[in-house]
Amino acid sequence: MEEVVIVGGGLAGLSAAVDLVEDEDTNVTVLEKNGHLGGRAGNKIDPVEEDPVPIAPHIYVSFYDELKSFFSKIGSEDAIYWEDGQICDVYYEGEFSTVKTGHLKPPWYLASLFANYPLFSTREMLNNFKVGSKLYLLDEDDIEDLDDTTVEEFLNDLGASKGVIDKFYRLICLALLNAPVEKCSAAEFCRLMKNFMKTDGRDWGYAKGGLGDVYTENAREFIEEHGGEVRMKTAVEEIKFESEEVTGLELETGEYVEPDQIISTVPPTVLRDILPEEQMETEFFSHLENFHGVPYYSAFACLMVR
Which partner for 197 in 72, 103, 107, 189 could form a disulfide, CB atoms 3.0-4.6 Å apart? Predict the structure, then answer.
């Protein structure tokens, strides 16, 4: 039987484990350093009210087919509330507006959204149709060339007005790519927009409760029911190498594990901390220095029902 250890009990680690445990010839262990699962897609527990507080707001889009398949497999498909043809409310310059997509097939529902976007003037609406048309015509080769271009630079090159960028694309980047247009990769942005244009992304969903409640316990139970193991409060001290070959993991407890396969699902900023210093000088791992975490500032209003 092949031994597989997954480092990290966030969404990536748990979803990988859920797939792997279905193979009867694979023994899977998930190592999570915290006392709770979920990572960036999880909860913190409020120390006063003991309520689950999501680390940041997460939006689910109806073209997330792999994520929906994962939720269905672990029994979490009903934990998301889907807005039927209504994306969200936006607050801009002191006013709330509702953004709707309508019920047309892709890509025409986007045309409906552009035409009825509540923040646009007529001039901005027409400008955005021009931008959207140019986006639609891009192929993957065009997109590959945009990886070193920011979304702001890219939209300016397409002729997007400042109002269109600030009122629409800035919100899209912050909500779905977690970065402002000044720093977000135009390539990733284009792939996202092409998904909206080619697939059914009309509906946006929101977790019913704390984000970690949506999937973490169901995933853990699925893994354990299929013979896998989830170990929390088990941190990796260092990934061990011989030359450039990974040989095992030294845990903070002093334990040494030597599985057949190791899968790291931790963020690049965390992976840097558990690699031997000399590995950071190799061509492969030296690129980790170029990754930076995305800061979240979340505010939650607690409404007391009496």
Answer: 107
